[in-house]
TrEMBL record:
<dbReference type="InterPro" id="IPR036291">
    <property type="entry name" value="NAD(P)-bd_dom_sf"/>
</dbReference>
<keyword id="KW-0560">Oxidoreductase</keyword>
<protein>
    <submittedName>
        <fullName>NAD(P)-dependent dehydrogenase (Short-subunit alcohol dehydrogenase family)</fullName>
    </submittedName>
</protein>
<comment type="similarity">
    <text>Belongs to the short-chain dehydrogenases/reductases (SDR) family.</text>
</comment>
<dbReference type="InterPro" id="IPR002347">
    <property type="entry name" value="SDR_fam"/>
</dbReference>
<dbReference type="GO" id="GO:0008206">
    <property type="term" value="P:bile acid metabolic process"/>
</dbReference>
<dbReference type="InterPro" id="IPR020904">
    <property type="entry name" value="Sc_DH/Rdtase_CS"/>
</dbReference>
<dbReference type="GO" id="GO:0016491">
    <property type="term" value="F:oxidoreductase activity"/>
</dbReference>
<dbReference type="Pfam" id="PF13561">
    <property type="entry name" value="adh_short_C2"/>
</dbReference>
Length: 250
């Protein structure tokens, strides 16, 4: 097993990519702390892991709130004795409108969760990772963090911020044996794209806009996250790994 004796936190672990990664980490032997703002989904992931002979707890967490992230790290280390993997994954889409029509409140909501949430995850996880002798941080960016798209300015900016914040943390904490990488998923079949699916005109185009001509599954993204979390990626840090079926170059 690739993650035995490791403890991992997965934010946004109640659904989609986070849920798939939490299950994959557990299958590889990790103790998994599921953090999500949604208690029903988050508890369900942790229960599922326990029912399949894994070790998991759920901690209700809003990633945009420093006090709640602090408490998440404290609960993790007091329950499992350390922290080795931090998957800063929770995120939200933005209301799709032109920048001039985007409210400042909506901008703040999206940037607070998608970018400040990753900053807080790094800020409070690093001391715990250092105490454990090092570890791996994986941050969820997006294909839309690597290129602009109309009507998603807050999402674009927040996810682009994650790419460089990842490099910043990789440079600051490499000497403590902490690797920091990002993933940039393309269109993946989770709740976050429900509104795109309902657009009968655009969905046939969006759903095939990559070299493989299909959308991805959360499990395919979880495989990439597992790789970055594991020792198999021992010389990889500061990287952003596209998991997009070739969507960036399409
Ligand atoms: N699905 C895609 O096509 C796609 C593409 C690129 C990037 N992403 C990114 O992947 C990540 C996971 O999204 P997903 O696709 O699995 O969608 P999802 O909606 O299935 O999962 C997101 C999870 O984050 C949780 N969450 C939202 N706000 C939170 C907060 N403030 N604090 C804690 N948890 C919160 C939600 O409750 C949910 O469980 C996000 O960062 C998203 O931006 C998704």
């Amino acid at each position: 097993m690739k993650l035995s004796e490791k403890t991992a936190i997965v934010t946004g672990g109640g659904s989609g990519i986070g849920r798939a990664a939490a299950l994959r980490f557990a299958k590889e032997g990790a103790k998994v702390v599921v953090a999500d703002i949604d208690s029903i989904d988050g508890e369900e992931t942790a229960n599922y892991i326990r029912e399949h002979e894994g070790s998991s707890i759920f901690v209700k967490t809003d990633v945009a709130d420093p006090e709640q992230i602090k408490r998440l790290i404290e609960t993790t280390t007091s329950t499992f004795g350390g922290l080795h993997i931090m998957f800063n994954n929770a995120g939200v889409g933005n209301l799709e409108v032109r920048s001039v029509d985007l409210s400042v409140e909506e901008w703040d909501r999206v940037v607070d969760i998608n970018l400040k949430g990753v900053f807080l995850g790094i800020k409070y996880a690093v001391p715990a990772l250092i105490k454990s002798g090092g570890g791996s941080i994986i941050n969820t960016s997006s294909l839309l963090g690597l290129k602009g798209q109309k009507f998603v300015s807050a999402y674009n900016a927040s996810k682009a911020g994650v790419v460089v914040l990842t490099q910043n943390a990789a440079l600051e904490y490499g000497k403590y044996h902490i690797r920091v990488n990002a993933i940039a998923p393309g269109v993946i079949d989770t709740k976050i794209i429900d509104n795109w699916k309902q657009n009968e005109r655009k969905w046939p185009i969006i759903s095939r806009a990559n070299a493989l001509g299909r959308i991805g599954t959360p499990e395919e993204v979880a495989n990439a996250v597992l790789f970055l979390a594991s020792d198999e990626a021992s010389f990889i840090t500061g990287a952003t790994l596209s998991v997009d079926g070739g969507g960036l170059m399409f």
